[in-house]
Amino acid sequence: MMGRSSGDSQQSIVGGIGADDAKLIRRRAAAPRPHRIGRRSLLKTGLAWTACAIAAPLPIRARGEQPVKIGMVEPLTGVYAALAEGEIAGARLAIEEINRSGGILGRETQLMVADSANDVMTGVAKTRELIDRDQVDFIAGNVNSAVALAMTQVTAEKRKLQIVTGGHTDEITDSRCSWNVFRICKSTTMEANAIADTLIEKLGAKWYFLTPDYVYGQALQSAFELKLRRHGGAWAGDILPLGSVDYSQALTNAEAFHPNVLINLMAGEDQVNSLTQIASFGLAQNMAVGGALFELETILSVPEAARTGWWTMEWWWNQPDVPHIKTFDTAFRSRIGKAPSARNWFGYAAIRALAQIANQEKSLDAVALARALQGYTLPADIALDPNRAFFRNADHELMSTVLLGEVHPARADPFDLFTVRALVEGEQAAGPDSESVCKLAFPS
Q: Which terminus of the chain has fewer Cβ atoms in its 10 Å neighbourhood, N or C?
């Protein structure tokens, strides 16, 4: 592997982290602290949040009953801020709809948001605060895979149902799965399986990777490498710390390798910066560009010349034959002035699913609800999927459709930036559940 550069090490312990959490953090190669604050976070209502409640638009609390509280831990500062804001916006819409429909168990539902600052120890501390101090009933989040994974230890200890919205690393629903944890977004294996064969067949099997230096990037590159080995491919790459600004050396290395495809596995502001520099270097004239995720938030933030390549989408707004998508699209455009993204849907689907299962089971008990969610099929107005979307029994991964296609400059609709070329069903992308090493053990 060429040009490996490690991220910043953790410098301090945030109050509220227990001994078990500290052991976890020492074991894991956690995400580095962010190098700079995301500009969108500074512009959006002073996002120096710890935990703020988003109340119901039409209060429905009666007879002195306490509201049902959902805690959401997201990196509101740092390179993933825009993606985190997208998930929270989706959760807010879900809260509005839930409360208009009578809440959870007839009680008002509130969303309490905490900033993990793209840092594992902070995320663990904020999760504990939401549970111990704010008495939340459920936990959701996090964009950062390392943070999401660390949060699962806290929620299992506290017996709280958790839905991971946007952390992709396989471990969450594989080797380190937990009875109380479910995931909306795809695993890194699902992402790689959905697109790797197409990239190889269409573009060639010699690749150069740009990979973020933490658990998500490492897992995703490993999944792609497995596919390349099976095709007799070749690869090299650079591993880069979160918050990297200058990609010139990595791009020089890539050009010298003469790959068929420059595989960009960066995310958030890191992907914006790297793709912008790829375009300015003119590298796309000599090699294809592609990878797994190129999300709507990121596409909208790069110059037109960088809107190119084959990628996956975990959800896409322009699927006219899918029931309820138009309603969801209209609701988002009226609120935030743009088409909804997969991140919006992650937050929306997670919160709606929690309310749906609690009302179905007439309970807030985590064990009862986790058992009920096993094999649970999301209703069409939550799934917004051309196929059945359900939580797999074996590992609690949501089996929903991966959309494979091409990114391109905007057309008549300014958000028409991706054309779907193929649909890959969740079970096809995930592979048989018999291959999972997840072992779920429910408490008595």
A: C
Q: What is d(CA 237, CA 208) in angstroms, rounded to the nearest whole number?
A: 5
> Could you tell me the two tokens for 135?
């008495």
Element (H, E) at 426: helix 426-430
Query: What is each CA distance from 144 to 21, 56, 200, 388, in whole angstroms?
Result: 17, 28, 28, 27
Copy the structure tokens of residue 389: 């979307």
Domains and CATH numbers, the chain: 19-187+325-400 (3.40.50.2300), 189-314+402-430 (3.40.50.2300)
* Cβ neighbours, 10 Å, residue 118: 32
* DSSP character at residue 415: T
The whole-angstrom separation of Cα 125 and Cα 115 is: 10
Amino acid, res. 357: I
List Cβ neighbours of 230 (8 Å cut-off, separation of 6 or more). none
Q: What are phi and psi of 324, to 5 degrees?
A: 75, -10
d(CA 5, CA 311): 26
Q: Are strands 109-115 and 52-54 parallel, antiparallel or unpaired?
A: antiparallel
Contacts of 173 (CB under 8 A, 6+ apart): 181, 183, 187, 395, 396, 397, 436, 438
pLDDT of 64 reads 53
Q: Distance between CA 308 and CA 289 in Å, rounded?
A: 7
Look at residues 269, 274, 209, 242 and name the one whose alpha carbon lies nearest to residue 9.
242
Asked if 155 and 181 count as a contact pair (C-beta separation under 8 A), the reply is yes
pLDDT at 5: 35
Distance CA 50, CA 129 (A): 9
Q: Give the per-residue SS3 of 226-284.
A: HHHHHCCCEEEEEEECCCCCCCHHHHHHHHHHCCCEEEECCCHHHHHHHHHHHHHHCHH
**Residue with token string 């960088």:** 306
DSSP3 helix / strand / coil % (the chain, rounded to 5): 40, 15, 40
- Let me know the angle formed at the C-alpha of 295 by 199 and 418, rounded to the nearest 5 degrees: 65
- Could you check whether the bond before residue 142 is cis, i.e. omega within 30 degrees of 0? yes
Eight-state DSSP code of residue 9 = P
Which pairing describes strands 138-140 and 181-183: parallel, antiparallel, or unpaired? unpaired
Specify whether the CB–CB gap between 281 and 262 falls below 8 A. Answer: no
Element of type H or E holding 212: strand 206-212
Q: Which helix (H) or strand (E) holds 107?
A: none
Cα–Cα–Cα angle for 92, 414, 43, rounded to 5 degrees: 45
pLDDT for the residue 39: 37
pLDDT tens digits, one per residue of 367-412 = 999 999 999 999 999 999 999 999 999 999 999 999 999 999 999 9
